[in-house]
Structure formats: structure tokens, C-alpha cells
Amino acid sequence: MAATLAELQSMDLSLVEDARSLAGHDYGPITPLLNDDSISEVMVNGPSQVYIERNGQLIQAEVAFAGEEELVRVIREIAAFVGRRVDDDSPMVDARLPDGSRVNAIIPPLALDGASLTIRKFSRDPYTVADLVSFGTLTAEAAAFLEACVRARFNVLVSGGTGSGKTTTLNVLSSFIPDNERVVTIEDAAELQLRQPHKVRLESRPARIDGTGRITIRDLVVNSLRMRPDRIVIGECRSGEALDMLQAMNTGHDGSLTTIHANSPRDTLARLETLVLMSGVDLPQRAIREQIASAIQLIVQQSRLRDGSRRITNVTEIVGREGDTITLQDVFLFEETGLDGNGRITGKLNPTGIRPNAMARIYSKRIPIAPALSALYPDRKAPDFTVGVRR
């Protein structure tokens, strides 16, 4: 018997979401992999080669499709599930499933060795800063510093390679935004899971088959400026929207956060320059660097190490310019100490001993900070009650 409207409205929303997720559907041999919460990614390189990522390690799964036809059927079924299609006219699809999982598929003739399917599974319980500290991704002191910087409305870039954990770190940094601020998030495929009550989530849209209807990240960044945001969080900066983002940061929209693909803090600056040039606006290099130096205060470098672990390796301040060169200083730096008995890299994100310029602004804004951070960087303007005391 069909459920009445009242019964449907009274259903637990989490149950409805489960019904609209990958779970509970038959997707051939990869179905148990999709239902396994310990697996974060499923990668199909043709019908006979399936890999998974578990605990940061890539492992070949002992499953295979019966043939190319079955794999293409599964791809088409997933695409249809989100209102898309995969055929000769549209041989690629990149989409977000209703449960948040990210799907990319490509079929022959573009995929030479058979159809390829990649599914990055959505985490129902996103990691918190406490989780990242327990994993060794960062230390309590570094976490306290980043929290203070976000609360003091610093503009922060999270940089790193593919699969290094940038989105997870961005999500954690976003959790430090106060609940009384209006947050606008902009993503290609919505992955951020902000807990703030006052948020607007925007997602770009690919072009239709005829090439019309495309809405880019840049379009959404420009539109977001008219939405009275207190914070703008961009899932990934990858093209000409970099210029609009920098201009927004330099015109009162401070406290913005985004990620970018780069292998080091210095590479991040070069990458950002390149993205600004992709905007089509002809700006001299000096003007671009002036924009970057005045807009960005902090770079958080994320890396996936050779053992598969994801670590924050640099927390770096942009401190200004010397001529045409943007000057940087590391506040925290990951120091590798060796390997444990399981072959995992050991090490710690240690303070470099340089007092960050950020602390003056944090103290002046009276941002509450953790005792560990105040012990590491005491307030220089606080009264010293030991002066004149006899010992």
C-alpha cells in the first residue's frame, strides 16, 4: 500500500536520504564495496580491474565485472540516477549523487582500455578537528592557531595535491566560523558539510548537450558578492574565479577560505598567478602579486605522504613583499622522524620558533585562544605583574 503524504512527511529524513544514496541499489560486483564504510574510494579501470582506497592505501579488490557491457550498464544506471546520460554524444559524466558521493565516469572511445568509473564516497560523519589531531594530521597547537586565524577573519588557502585531504581540512576550518555569520559555499560538486545554521550552498552546473546552460564557479563567485555574505568558502579555485576571489578578499569580504592544487606554499603563489591570468584580464605581474600579498594571510599545505597518510606539512604566513617577490614564513613545519613498526611515517607538525605576525591581530581582536597557543605565543601587550617584584 502506498504511503500517504502525511506519512511521507513524517518519515525520518535520514531514511529518505538513504533511499536516494548508492546504498541499497544493485551495481554489480562493486555493490559490497560501496556499502563498506571503511572504503573511501572505488576506482574501476575497465571491467577486470577494480581498486579501492582504504586507510589511505590503494588496494586491488578481488572483484570484476562480467564484461564491458555490464560495466557500461552500471555507469549508465548511476548517471540516470542523477538525471544525466552517458553515450557517444556525451561520453563523460562528473556528478554528485544525492547522498554527496562524487562520481566520474568515461567510456570508449575516450577511455582506450574500457570504461572507467571513479566514486569518491561521501562521509556521513565528517571528521572534526579532534579527529585530525588524533590521526596526527596536525597538532593541538597548530589546530588552535588555525582556529584563531579563522575566527580573526584571515583569508586562508588550503593547498595540496589530488587526494591529499584538502576538502577535509577545509571542512574542519569552516567549522571554526561563528554560527552568527552568513556563509556562502561555492563548489563544483557539493562536498562541504558545514554545521552553521546560516548558510547558502551553491553548486556549478555543466553545459547541456547543445553547449548551453553552463554556470561556472566564477559566475557563482560574482553572484555571491550580491548575497551579503560574511564569509565565502570556495571548494576549489581552479580557473579565472581566482581574480574575483582576490578582489572580494581585498574589498571587505575577509575571512574567506578555499583550496588550490599546489605542491608547496611557494608553488601555491605561482599557481594563483596562473589562475588570475586565466581570467582573461590583462594585468601586469606586479599588480597580481600586490593583490595576492594583500588578500591572502595564510597557506595551509596538505600532503599525502608515501605511506598513504595525509598530513599538514606547512602552516605558512604571507608577510608582505620585497620588490616583486612575495615573502613567506613558516609558522609550523612537519618534521619526519622515521618509520614505525608498521612502516608508517612518524613525525610531528612542530612550531618553527618564529612568532607569527598573525598573533598581534588575534590578540588585538580579543579572539579567545587555547592555553596551549597562548603559552606558545604569549600576548606581548599584556601587563607583566612580575616587574618590580622582589625575588
What's the short version?
The protein has 391 residues and is an alpha/beta fold. 29% of the residues lie in helices and 25% in strands.
Structure description:
The chain has about 400 residues and is of the alpha/beta class. The chain folds into two domains: about 15-120, Beta-Lactamase; about 130-375, P-loop containing nucleotide triphosphate hydrolases (Rossmann fold, 3-Layer(aba) Sandwich). About 30% of the residues lie in helices and about 25% in strands. The chain contains 13 helices and 15 strands. It has helices at about 5-10, 15-20, 30-35, 70-80, 130-135, 140-150, 165-175, 215-225, 240-250, 265-275, 285-295, 360-365, 370-375; strands spanning about 40-45, 50-55, 55-60, 90-95, 100-105, 115-120, 155-160, 185, 200-205, 230-235, 255-260, 300-305, 310-320, 325-340, 345-350. The strands form two sheets. The chain has a nine-stranded mixed beta sheet, sandwiched between helices. Strands 3-2-1-6-5-4 form a six-stranded antiparallel beta sheet, with helices on one face. A hairpin with a 5-residue loop joins strand 14 and strand 15 (about 345-350). Helix 8 (about 215-225) packs parallel to helix 9 (about 240-250) and helix 10 (about 265-275) crosses helix 11 (about 285-295). The longest helix has 14 residues, at about 70-80. About 35% of the residues are buried.
General form: globular
- Which blocks of ≥5 consecutive residues have pLDDT under 50? 1-21, 385-391
Trace the largest sheet across and list its strands.
9-8-10-11-7-12-13-14-15
- Biggest sheet features: 9 strands, mixed
CATH homologous superfamily name of the largest domain? P-loop containing nucleotide triphosphate hydrolases
CATH architectural type of the largest domain: 3-Layer(aba) Sandwich
Q: Say how many strands there are.
A: 15
Number of domains: 2
* CATH fold description of the largest domain: Rossmann fold
| N-to-C CA distance | 85 Å
Return Rg in Å: 23 Å
Kindly report the average pLDDT value: 87
